[in-house]
Each structure stands twice: as structure tokens, then as C-alpha cells.
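Narrative of activities, Objective 1.

The group set out to show that a structural description can be obtained from nothing but a protein's sequence at a throughput compatible with the screening campaign. Below is one input-output pair from the validation batch, recorded exactly as produced.
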Amino acid sequence: MISRYQSLLHRIDTWFAQAMAKHGDVIPCRAGCTACCHGPFDISPADAALLRTGIALLPAKARGEVRVRGELLLTRMHELAPAWGAPWDVSVLGEEGFDEVAEALAGEPCPLLGDDGRCRVYEHRPLVCRLIGLPMLTDLGETLENACPIQEQFPGYPELPGVPFDYAAFAAEELAILAATPGPETTIAAIAAEG
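Output recorded for this entry:
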């Protein structure tokens, strides 16, 4: 399942790389930019499995640091939502409850963010991390807006038109993978805390 999901995510990476080749002068996404690497957000069971694989590949010292950071963030989340706990199923809080926790912790760095501003598990990062930074024009006629939190700081970036993507086929494959992947929607912090 992991290799199937990584192949699917490679489509997003290719889409992003093509957009960078065409519009790189206005897209600020680069190694070391961490604007979108803060605050908790939900991830799918497939993303959780992918992250577990990436974390397992880290050296022991880095895994320990990730686990401690994940545990600290989970403690803060639990303080904000005392009824929420392992397995950190996002559906327990509901969308509004999770949004409140996420908003309160919006400035907290991802437990996988290294001191150098790089993702420690970049090749194993979740789908949401791969989507931020570009507006997507789907083959269904919808535009998924750019979620970059600092886009207004870069001339021409907020006005970048939606970059075409074959979303229908992607979504169908993603749904098939999710159907075959047990587990709840959770957070990166919960997976990081497993170490």
C-alpha cells in the first residue's frame, strides 16, 4: 500500500515541479521556507502509514527528537481538548472542535520540522504538505485555492492562475487506497509521538 500511495503522491510532486518550472520566479516555495509547516492539521490513514515509514528510516537520535516534539504538541492539544486522546481520531472532536485546536496552535512547528527548516521526512510527507503553495484547477472545473499563509508577501503569487491537474483520476485512486488503509484521520503529532 505504501508504494502505491507514494506513486499516487508522485503525481502531485510532478504537477508541482512542472508549475515551478513554468512559474518559479513567482512561487516562493523552497527548502527552508516553513510558513506552511506550523499548526496541527489532519492527515489520512494512508498519510499516517507513510509517515510511520519515513520516521522509521530516521536515525535513532532524530526519531527521539521527533517523538519528544510530537508528545509535547499532543500535550498542548490535550490541554485544549481534554476529552481527546489516543488514538487522536480527529472525528472525535468534529470539524469545528479540531479547527479550534488547530487555530489555537497555529504557530506551533510541525514535530517533523528540523532545526534547519527542512522536513525530516520530506519524501514521506503527507498529501496536504504537497498541495500547499499552488492553486489547482481540476478537470472537474473547480479551483482549489492556494493555501500558502504568506502568499500576499510575494508579488504575482496570489494572482497565479489555477494549475491544471487530472484530479478525478487522482481522487478515485486515493479513495481506493484509503478504503484499503485502516485507521482514523489523525494528526502528524500523533504519528510523531509514536516515534
